[in-house]
């Protein structure tokens, strides 16, 4: 059943990704502005302009352009960036690891903070501390990631300069990376100076991305825990003398984690999309920052490649969350 479900989801995901690519492809070509006009030098002849348009396939009809582009993508050729004059796939693979490190670090922090606050709120239910936790979480829930980013820049970047304001690593550090995963490679190679420097550059963007997600996790997980705490199996464990902390962590949490996990997967896709603004604020060299430059420069091949990458990430994350939820829930696993 799981194999059939995965196959069905992959088919639907492929069709969805193709549809998104087609819509974006058409929209990019009907909006005002000509990307070739941003590339030509002053005094270029009509023949030079025509040659440049032919080079990027912009002289063909819209269906023909889409057909050529789709055929190239299926063969692993995402085209050449108009603004950077480099292979699009090479650019994406070079920037994607930075964004993935940022997103997964933010996810870990959000799970730790959101889970801890939800457990504390459950332990102190029906006490004066519970409404205080709920009210604070409700206020923080309304603060978007870019506001957190700007606040962190002002507080721990300018007023109290603790962390670096921009970039991914100090350029004065001497190391030749074998992979684009700087944080992981620094740890594996025991270059603690590199690891801590990369981590210091990630602190502010990670917090800006993690805090909004942590508030969502807190609300959903706390509601699920409160519902689980009145179930018969928890009441039976309480009669056996189990402590309140063990009741929450050992009995209620494993049954309440399902809804929170599903929502976290959905929210994580928005977190990856949120890296666009946060990376721009901190000048972080990920695909989010590159996406803004691509839109500004009307770099059609690069924008199309970015859309496919973001779409593929969303599909993989949702599929992974569904499989994990099925593995944790016997009813879903055997349904």
From TrEMBL:
Pfam families: BPD_transp_1, BPD_transp_1_N
Keyword Nuclease: no
Alphabetical list of InterPro entries matching this protein: BPD_transp_1_N, MetI-like, MetI-like_sf
Lineage top rank: taxon: Bacteria
Coiled coil regions, renumbered to chain: none
Subcellular location: Cell membrane
Family membership: Belongs to the binding-protein-dependent transport system permease family.
Name recorded for this polypeptide: ABC transporter permease
Organism: Neorhizobium petrolearium
């Amino acid at each position: 059943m799981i194999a059939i479900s995965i196959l069905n989801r992959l088919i639907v995901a492929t069709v969805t990704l193709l549809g998104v690519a087609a819509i974006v492809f058409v929209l990019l070509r009907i909006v005002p502005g000509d990307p070739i006009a941003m590339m030509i030098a002053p005094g270029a002849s009509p023949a030079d302009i025509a040659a440049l348009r032919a080079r990027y396939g912009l002289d063909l009809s819209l269906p023909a352009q889409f057909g050529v582009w789709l055929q190239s993508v299926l063969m692993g050729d995402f085209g050449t960036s108009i603004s950077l004059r480099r292979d699009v796939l090479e650019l994406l693979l070079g920037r994607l690891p930075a964004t993935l490190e940022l997103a997964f670090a933010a996810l870990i922090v959000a799970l730790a903070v959101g889970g801890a606050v939800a457990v504390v709120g459950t332990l102190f239910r029906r006490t004066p501390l519970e409404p205080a936790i709920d009210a604070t979480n409700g206020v923080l829930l309304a603060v978007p990631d870019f506001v957190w980013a700007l606040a962190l820049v002002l507080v721990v970047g300018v007023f109290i300069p603790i962390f670096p304001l921009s970039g991914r690593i100090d350029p004065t550090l001497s190391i030749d990376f074998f992979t684009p995963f700087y944080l992981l490679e620094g740890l594996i190679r025991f270059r603690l100076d590199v690891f801590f420097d990369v981590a210091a550059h990630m602190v502010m963007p990670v917090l800006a991305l993690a805090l909004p997600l942590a508030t969502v996790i807190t609300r959903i997980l706390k509601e699920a825990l409160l519902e689980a705490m009145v179930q018969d199996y928890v009441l039976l464990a309480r009669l056996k003398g189990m402590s309140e902390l063990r009741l929450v962590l050992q009995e209620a949490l494993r049954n309440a984690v399902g809804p929170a996990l599903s929502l976290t997967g959905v929210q994580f896709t928005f977190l990856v999309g949120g890296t666009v603004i946060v990376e721009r604020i901190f000048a972080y060299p990920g695909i989010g920052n590159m996406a803004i430059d691509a839109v500004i420069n009307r770099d059609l091949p690069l924008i199309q490649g970015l859309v496919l990458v973001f779409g593929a990430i969303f599909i993989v994350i949702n599929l992974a969350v569904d499989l994990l939820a099925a593995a944790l829930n016997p009813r879903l696993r055997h349904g």
